[in-house]
Specification:
Layout lengths: L17 H27 L14 H14 L1 H17 L2 H7 L1 H4 L6 H12 L16 E2 L10 H22 L1 E3 L7 E4 L4 E4 L5 E3 L2 H16 L2 H11 L8 H14 L1 H4 L4 E2 L5 H16 L8 H19 L3 E2 L1 H5 L7
């Protein structure tokens, strides 16, 4: 695979004081509001057709917001990254494109500030603690979804992503629980993927991973009775649930687990699973909200990882045999 030369990223100092962050966030909100008013006036004067989207979701406003969040980093930029992962379905295309910079070309911390922070945290001579240290980030992994990347390479990386997720769950029982695209990089020199932000992790008990292994086996085997049994143990449903509510939940579980139930290569890029799952979830919440209960924390973290990894594989248009990748960790039929 050939990669384009890296475009130098803009560096800007990360605000470290509470006042500094509040001022930047306030400026961002002010710019967004002012831009929204200007956009509304422009539309009301007939200079362009009225659009269904909010006047605050214009391209110019999106770019202003993205630039502000990019310079702030931290929780503010994290929020923008989370929104950008969903934006292709929930936000207008220009807004989604503008927010994408938060994942692949956000401001970087100046080298001098990096050295100062690491010196404060690790002490003098911190460089000796690392076998190597690169101030320039690797290639964002979602760039593999662009033109010029062979499908074979996309599929290989997709299999690595899926395989890593299953290793985290069953082998390590420790999972990096923030799968936003900015936490995954691609190293073209050796074809490996790089996973960042291991400060955001969750550790699973053997009992939890065993139950998930059993429900995955039951789903692959089409054993509805076993699926319901382990769904109750995991916390998806209760034995006292009505048969109608139980069937709604089982339908959603089967839908979410489509990749492991599919034999052969699953085409993540061509799948509309996320859209169908979201629509089904909204429908169930709107019409049957009183029947729902929040899943246990471990289950919620796992779902976040499952969906985030699915989105990443879809973004790079990968195909992977998810069933073959998970089978080695499952109990015998």
């Amino acid at each position: 695979m050939t990669t384009k030369p890296k475009k130098p990223r803009r560096q800007s100092r990360v605000p470290t004081s509470r006042i500094g962050r509040i001022l930047r966030l306030g400026m961002a909100a002010g710019e967004l509001a002012a831009g929204g008013v200007a956009e509304a006036v422009r539309r009301m004067t007939g200079l362009e057709p009225a659009q269904a989207a909010s006047v605050f979701l214009s391209t110019a406003n999106a770019q202003k917001l993205a630039r502000s969040l990019s310079s702030m980093r931290g929780a503010a930029m994290k929020l923008g990254q989370m929104v950008s992962m969903e934006s292709s379905d929930l936000l207008p295309a220009p807004f989604a494109a503008a927010l994408a910079i938060l994942r692949d070309s956000a401001d970087t911390m100046p080298d001098s500030q990096v050295r100062r922070v690491l010196g404060r945290e690790y002490g003098k001579g911190w460089e000796r603690l690392f076998s190597s240290f690169d101030y320039v980030p690797s290639v964002p992994i979602e760039s593999l979804g662009g033109d010029g990347v062979a499908q074979e390479e996309r599929d290989r990386v997709g299999a690595l992503l899926q395989g890593l997720m299953y290793r985290e769950l069953f082998e390590f029982r420790t999972m990096q629980s923030d799968p936003n695209f900015a936490n995954y990089f691609y190293r073209p020199e050796d074809g490996k993927i790089v996973l960042l932000d291991l400060g955001s992790t969750v550790t699973f008990s053997r009992a939890f991973t065993s139950r998930y292994g059993h429900i995955a086996r039951a789903l692959i085997d089409g054993d509805d009775g076993a699926v319901r049994h382990y769904a109750e143990q995991i916390g998806y449903m209760d034995a006292a649930d009505s048969s109608a509510h139980a069937e709604r939940l089982l339908t959603l579980i089967r839908m979410v687990c489509s990749p492991i139930c599919h034999e052969g290569l699953y085409d993540f890029g061509a799948s509309d699973l996320l859209k169908r799952t979201r629509e089904k979830g909204f429908e169930m919440f709107l019409h049957h909200a009183r029947d729902f209960r929040a899943p246990p924390p471990d289950t919620a973290f796992l779902h976040r990882k499952l969906m985030g990894t699915f989105q990443l594989c879809a973004r790079i248009k990968a195909r992977a045999n998810a069933q073959a990748l998970i089978r080695p960790y499952l109990p015998a039929s």
